[in-house]
Design brief:
Strand order of the largest sheet: 12-11-10-9-8-7-28
InterPro entries: aCPSF1, Beta_Casp, KH_dom, KH_dom-like_a/b, KH_dom_type_2, KH_sf_prok-type, MBL, Metallo-B-lactamas
Pfam families: Beta-Casp, KH_2, KH_TffA, Lactamase_B_6, RMMBL
Helix content: 25-40%
Cofactor: Zn(2+)
CATH class of the largest domain: Alpha Beta
Distance between the termini: 34 Å
GO molecular function, one term: DNA binding
Number of domains: 3
EC number: 3.1.-.-
Shape: globular
Number of strands: 28
Length: about 625
């Protein structure tokens, strides 16, 4: 008998001793980080609302209870009872029964009403029909991505269950090493922005954190060939802090080269990763580049993803627990906290953070039980990287829009599909609603509309007041009549170009490809147009060059190899970035509880990481580093 089998037998006996005699346990197994208990008495489990919570606390594991298939009510009978229990106002749009796991997926416009106070409605459903309910939100704006991901995972339930069982056994295997140490190896984004990638190693475990590309430098990828990362198929887990391509683009590549393990991230990060990586392949093909992997690898990544909620402490290896916390950067972005060993060491990877509240998100979390080392982004860590106050930034944007409108021009805003676009949409919607700027069409090109639909699917990840507005259809700001989704391609772009004043939000945010290139062809020669940069422009990108004053730009890769002259005005409005400025980064460390002993400053230009590292050292008398790529730090 294997160690895991014996462990499960012992757990089964312990559970049987803790629960009432009239509740049976037919099987106990692992699925990913969860312990799954199968029972012929799901209704009795549900009647005792504290039983699962008590077991989870005693066993120190996340627990799911599933009924044996032969004790379930027939789906037709069960559906009638479910609809009788759930209030009509919940807006149930679909019920999907899965007899293999005894789960019924309930899709509803208002999931909170399906869940009930402290889960009371869910327990009532199980008490009546035996099925275990799982609740998902019906997107207020129809999202092809969310629909496709959910349908794909439904089709792959059997494979996915096998993956989860294998991962569960790997997590709970016997520890093999008597040594105790912690190392971090840098595979990218050190003294540069882009290709974020790190290996967190212990004597027992290797975890890859992020695996992204470098904007504007397609040949510069993470150093996955380094000994610390190889062989890839022996990495225990991948943790993805958020979905931006400089962190996620090459996650599917891992599966091409043999990785077959779990990816941990939030649920919206999973969906956005699918959206952005598929678009990444599409853009590469359109520009005549050979994509680094096939779309099948994106599906493999989705199938291996285990979504976690903020604050859930989760075993991901025999000696590592992971907790994700809000990073305030984009939808689902997470500060990833690793608790290693039995109190041996604690490391937090910030990913990209925004410390202050924004219109979209609450500010990044910086309170943890323990943190000895912080790996911290430094995008705006330079001594002069102080961002404009948000109110002042919004006022400047309004002035640029008004001035351009007055000369009958158009406002062209290159923006990341995820995060900055939605922030700008909220600012514009409020300004038009309150009469601060004239009403005019706001055209959304590229993936912006789809990304916005995903935001509305997960309002619990947004600021409280915005979440409440999304719940009320008549107040959902993203459904404002001014917003128009460009879905007619070049014909519609020409119509917009020939029309009156308007605002155009278009990907890509750093002008590295995508529909923004078409808009430059249409509007670049127009002196009445204003191009407004509202997000970070990495070195080497076309956006940075235009921002720096280039008025002749190459248009290679669009069936031509000549240059385009720009006569439009160019403005930069700071303060809308999803990254904290210099002061926000310093404040994040200053108010961090507990304050870390060491900080590794990464994800910034060379001067930015060195400036921030020096500042933190002098202000807080802590050990700080500005590592280079392919360095390894040992902490124990």
């Amino acid at each position: 008998m294997s160690t895991v089998e014996k462990q499960l037998d012992d757990l089964k006996a312990e559970i049987a001793a803790e629960i009432p005699n009239d509740i049976s346990v037919s099987d106990v197994t692992y699925e990913g980080p969860e312990l799954v208990i199968y029972t012929r008495d799901p209704k009795k489990f549900a009647q005792n609302g504290d039983l699962i919570r008590t077991l989870a606390g005693k066993l120190r594991k996340r627990i799911t209870v599933r009924p044996d298939p032969d004790v379930l009510a027939r789906p037709t009978d069960a559906e009638a009872q479910i609809r009788a229990i759930i209030p009509d106002e919940a807006g149930v749009t679909d019920l999907d029964f899965h007899a293999d796991t005894g789960e019924v997926v309930i899709e509803a416009q208002k999931p909170g009403m399906v869940i009930g106070r402290h889960g009371s409605t869910l327990r009532e459903i199980t008490q009546k029909i035996g099925w275990t309910p799982e609740v998902v939100r019906t997107p207020p704006i129809e999202s092809a991505t969310v629909s496709n991901v959910r349908n794909f995972l439904k089709q792959e339930r059997e494979d996915r269950r096998e993956i989860l069982e294998r991962v569960g056994r790997q997590i709970h295997r016997e520890e093999l090493s008597d040594e105790q140490w912690v190392r971090i190896s840098t595979l990218g984004c050190c003294r540069e922005v882009g290709r974020a990638s790190f290996i967190l190693s212990t004597a027992e475990t290797r975890i890859l954190i992020d695996c992204g590309d470098k904007p504007g430098a397609e040949d510069e990828v993470p150093y996955l060939q380094a000994p610390e990362a190889n062989p890839l198929n022996s990495i225990d887990a991948v943790v993805l802090t958020h979905a931006h391509l400089d962190h996620s683009a090459l996650i599917p590549l891992l599966f091409k080269y043999g990785y077959d393990g779990p990816i941990y991230c939030t649920e919206p990060t999973r969906d956005l990763m699918g959206l952005l990586t598929l678009d990444y392949l599409d853009v590469a093909a359109k520009e005549g580049r050979t994509p680094p992997y096939e779309s099948e690898m994106v599906r493999e990544a989705l199938k291996h993803t285990i979504p976690l909620e903020y604050g859930d402490v989760t075993d991901i290896a025999p000696d590592v627990k992971l907790t994700l916390h809000n990073a305030g950067h984009i939808l689902g972005s997470a500060v990833s906290h690793f608790h290693i060993g039995d109190g041996l060491y604690n490391v937090a990877f910030s990913g990209d953070i925004h410390y202050e509240d924004t219109r979209l998100f609450n500010g990044a979390v910086n309170e943890f039980p323990r943190v000895e080392t912080l790996v911290m982004e430094s995008t705006y860590g330079g001594r002069n990287d102080y961002q404009t106050d948000q109110a002042d930034s919004e006022q400047k944007l309004m002035e640029v829009i008004q001035e351009t409108y007055d000369r009958d021009g158009k406002i062209l805003i290159p923006a990341f599909a995820v995060g900055r676009s939605q922030e700008i949409m909220l600012v514009i919607e409020e300004a038009m609603r309150k009469g601060k700027i004239p009403e005019m069409p706001v055209h959304l090109d590229g993936m912006i509309w789809e990304a916005t639909a995903i935001h509305t699917t997960y309002p619990e990840y947004l600021r409280d007041d915005l979440r409440d507005r999304i719940f009320h259809e008549n107040e959902n700001p993203f459904l404002s009549s001014q917003f128009n989704h460009i879905d007619g391609g070049e014909d519609e772009r020409r119509d917009v170009t020939d029309g009156g004043p308007s605002i155009i939000l278009s990907t890509s945010g750093m002008v590295t490809g995508g529909p923004i290139m078409s808009w430059l062809e249409h509007l670049g020669p127009d002196p009445d147009t204003t191009m407004v940069f509202v997000g970070y422009q990495a070195q080497g990108t076309l956006g940075r060059r235009i921002q720096s004053g280039w008025d002749e730009i190459p248009m290679n890769g669009r069936g031509r190899s000549d240059t385009l002259s720009l006569d439009l005005s160019v403005e930069t409005v700071d303060g809308f970035s999803g990254h904290s400025g210099r002061q926000g980064l310093v404040d994040y460390v200053r108010t961090m509880n507990p304050r870390p002993e060491k900080v590794l400053c990464v994800h910034g230009d060379e001067s930015s990481v060195q400036d921030l590292s020096s500042a933190l050292y002098h202000k807080f008398d802590m050990r700080t580093f500005a590592p280079k790529n392919l360095e390894t730090f040992r902490f124990r």
